[in-house]
Amino acid sequence: MNGAVRTILSFVIACMLLPAAPGNAGEEARKDYNQLFYSANTYYEHGDYVKALENYDRLLQAGLESGRLYYNIGNSFFKIGKVGYAILFYEKAKRLIPRDGDLKSNLAHAKSLVGYSAFQAPTENRWTKIILKPYEDFNLNAITISGAFLYLVLIFLLASSVFNPIFIRKFRFVFWIFIVLFLANTGAFTLRYYDEEILDHGIVVQKEAECKYEPIDKSTTYYKLQEGSEVIILKTRNGWTQIKRLDGKIAWIKKEAVAEINPEF
Amino acid sequence: MRKFIKIFGLLLPAAGILLQAAAAGEVKFEASLDRNKIAIGETAQLGLSFYGTQSMPAPDVGRIDGLEIRYTGPSTMMTVINGEVSSSVTHMYTVAPLRIGKFQIGPFSFKYKGDNYTSNMVFLESTEEKVAISAKALSPDLGDTLDLGDRIFLKLGIGKTTAYVNELIPISVKLYVHRLNVGDIQLPTFSQEGFSKVEFREPKQYREELDGLVYEVLEFNTSIFGTRPGDYRLGPSKLKCNVMLMKKPSRGQMRDDPFGNSSQDPFYDNFFSRYEKRPVELKSEDAQIIVSPLPEEARPRDFSGAVGDYQFIFSASPTKVKVGDPITLRMSINGNGNFNTVLIPRLEDVDGFRMYDAQVETHENSKMFTQVLIPEKDNLTAIPKASFSYFNPSAREYKRIVQGPIPIQLEKAKEEAPSQVVGPLPAARQESPAKEDEMSRDIIYIKESPGILMKRDYQIYKNVIFFVLLGLPLPALVLMYGVQARRKRMERDTVYAGRIMAFRVAKKGLRDLRHKMELEDGKVFYEEVFKTLQNYLGNRLHIPVAGITFDAIVERLAGLDMDLDILRKLKGLFETCDKARFAFFAVAKHKMSDDLKELKEVMDYFERRKI
User: Is A81 an interface residue toward B (CB < 8 Å)?
Assistant: First the structure.
């Protein structure tokens, strides 16, 4: 690789990562943020989970996030008995570090404590399951990058076929494999994007929240949801949130009883 | 998603629909008249309908004393309701009385492919004076404001006008149709503030006589319940459908009657008629319902809103298990009432059991809760009592049914090494003093480093630069395809290659000539002009460069519609070149400039004309 190419590549990577960098304060700021995280961990080690949460929260207030940060927050909530919030933050972490084994275990454990619900199972159809299965351990960024890689391979194969038509005739099956992989990747991205970015998932954070037919205190209770139950948030009005249980039943719940996994900032 | 019911041709004049018979594969034969009383000189429509088939020929009706019966043709109909298809054929006859009296028409017997079919009989009375027909029913024009009067209307029926909160109120919406073709019927809608969502069941279809008129009725049924007390108005119910109206051509001797009535010869009426689809929205009356609150007095503590009259059946299996093994509880609520508000019966004192959320199955008159309980202590002897409370609106009192306890026999579980991560689980809804300890013990420790702290909600797929960079190879690929395709064409298409070469020669030649003109050496300049001309025309016209003269060019261009001025300029250029090259005559700079312009014009002309 010659110098010019290396310079261009460095510039490109810098351009892409610049928006993700934590502010403009550079190395010093990063050190401060890391220090905040470590001090929160120290509080946690000494059993002061509330103080730990305060420090973790300062990182969130600074507009930062990481899968590990959410995981530690989830643990802290779990320790003070707020299992609903613990599940909420584990779910947030899962969107960033879906492969993490510790996270999977703690999330499964927290869910088992609040009881299994038949309505927790997402009602995905068979094709959705087939498409998403290989990407279970991928977050959206990873799916995007794998899609970009497959796209570039396809471009390369097509470009090769332009100058050497025999190449594409010889490796036609390779070309089709990449086409299929690219389409599957695009399908997985679309489904996950819809699920994570378009649908507004929430977690019930109160013990046994009553879900009503109408956003009125006196209205009839339609069903009750256990702490930690996952719902889809439809809209919020006058202190009430309209939710859809994963089996499709729509009801109104007190706004404070449910928290969004991926709130808009 | 709202279901749409498609009905193609719900009715034909004087035809009845019996879908049940059709669905069962049975062919039914029925006779009907569009009206039972007519004046001498008028005609009635007799329909002989076969339901369940469309391939039945016209029966011979024979002669009836005092009546003239003439066959006008068949009419087939297919009805689709929620995917179930029924078909029928109706053979139409015009009936004209020849004298005053009462006539019996039918029963008709008809034998086809070995099967005998017998219809019912109908009666027709002929009078001397014209029978008055509702002006609405014979609305003569087909204007923009369609008044269908009593031919099609909607009725909202409610089962009760007072009810308690959560008490079911039966609702029916009936569509009445008399002698009209109606299609594309949608489900009724109505405003329902203060009530639960309306979900209609499959509609029923039957005939009903109202004020002497026989209507085809489509009845939509459902039940709703008030969700909060108050005085409400339910409805009006609205229903959208398309009405098929018969429209006749505006001929002087024919009456424009949208419903097919005519005082002219019915043969012409039917022959010249055509149907036009008109969308209509029907509206029923509204209705008042008073929703009362449930009494506070004597309300059981475990009452969850169930209103109706229910029975509660409680069972558990197996009853002999080991500690940690699941026991399935089945709690069935049966009866009449609102099952939407029936929640799971309450188990008393579940200490020592781990509980899971119940699975619920709702049927028309029952709701089944299946719940798994896991005994976690070996001193448990019974599944605790379960209670279900409801309000009975007929008796106007709360009732509480208690079932159980159900005895169980427990064996001690074998000792097993506890899981490192997920240990014994406490009951979900129980606040236990040991809960915090169990929680502390069971989760995996925190992460020691924060990983890469990113700006919140940063995603690479939201990065414009990423997508711009990703997009760049695509136009590059298209460009490569273009270049490669052009290169290949240059290789195999010599004419195309010659034209491309000619263009290049022209550009280069003109550039050199401008430079050589500055030298003011006529010989050098015109040698270059000649060379440019030769190369350009040789490539452009696909002829050998060495043999190019004006005559050779003219010969090559023969048959083409060439501009004479261009040919003249070309000839002039060749002549000037020859003189300058061989006669050594002096040439002024302005002459060279003019010739250069002419050369450019000639080449532009060839490029433009794509010669």
Answer: yes
